[in-house]
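ASSEMBLY PREDICTION REQUEST
Request ID: AP-0331
Submitted by: J.K., bench scientist
Number of chains: two
Total residues: 450
Priority: normal
Notes: Please return the full assembly, not individual chains.
Input sequences:
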Amino acid sequence: MNDFLNQIRLVADWLTSSAQWHGDEGIPARLVEHLTYSGLSLLCAALIGLSAGLLVGHTGRGAFAVASVANLARAIPTFGLVVLVVTLAGLSTAPVLVALVALAVPPILINTFEGVRGVDPAARDAARGVGMTEWEVLVKVEVPMALPLILLGLRVAAIQVVATATVAAYPGLGGLGRFIVDGLARNDYELVIGGSAVVVALALVVQAAFTALGRAVVSPGLRVSAPKS
Amino acid sequence: MSDGEPLVRWQWIADHTAELADHTALHLRLGLLPVLFGLLVSVPLGILCHRRRRLYPPVLTVANILYSIPSLALFMVFVRYTGLTEQTVMIPLTLYTLSVLVPNVVDGLASVPEPVRLAATAMGFGTVRRVLQVELPIAVPVVIAGVRVAAVSSISLVAVGQLIGQGGLGYYITRGLQLDFPTPIVTAIALIMLLALATDALLVLAQRLLTPWSRSRVTTA
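STATUS: Completed
Returned structure:
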């Protein structure tokens, strides 16, 4: 227990020393890099996952393909993919983005698809019955009803991306993982734990942000049934 | 990477088969034991959450928070206590499985139709026997769906453990980067994906064998 408290004190010391808050290698600069990797890849993954998930969910065609692709993508070791792309293409931002997009697409795709497919057929028929076009059925009925699952997919993807962007530091790229990898190389435990603490804090902020977003945008009528995880 | 270097040098793979097999076995152990431990924790915890609904939201929140901690960071926290050992990799991986397995056990138990529960009680099943012999078997498909997700992600996460020296096939990923030689990296990725997909297929098979009654439902659905 003493050791645990000691660990917390080390982290607090590290976090509050002014050296960590300035320059190219300070926490703010690393945080910006980390958020750039995470944000860009999440955006790309959302474009791919949402459009494919909505399309397949709405038409019902290609369900098997979606499940297979998502399953296959989940099996890819992100760490290996980052390292491979760096080895092939050299050190730049692109490798991290490719690997993180591959990581983030499956949860978004699967949940969007399941969400749209799970919409009560009676609601869909009623929407068509009152004269909505297919596009209106999708945007005004299916998407709002699928929103809890769509947000769940985005949240899982965001958490995974923020957490996994740390491995980008291993082949020599930036981001918050730098503190962990450098600390490990120099046997500087303070740096390792301090860096880890920042990443954990960021992941918790993302988690909280999605909970708040869910409260704000999901229709109150859908909140009765607890969202599946 | 030097120009003209092929993506895969087959000769390298042929020269390293024995070594690759050892790392593959190690990788499988590091990836799957956590799922087993996770299941041993999640089944009782899920039953408890199912019976005491008020426990479920806090348990789920804790599991989700654990899941949001990056693997690399969590490995580092445990290095202090368990050193650069296999446990340091397996404990975090076990904790990660909870966020998938606990909800699936709870949802699986919730999927048991009320008449079935009542019939079991009417036939004289006590609570313990009813849960073990009636409710859990009916929950198996949903639980296995969770085990599949947990196993696949666990197997692919093991590789990160290489940063603390315990990564199974992850060894070839860091090795390839150090040597600027893509063959070991490609081989490791391919083997990891193969392990994940083979495990997934075996779990589907296990579900068929464990729940022979659901097969007829699948064909009529």
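REVIEWER COMMENTS: The longest helix of chain B spans residues 17-51.
SIGN-OFF: pending second reviewer
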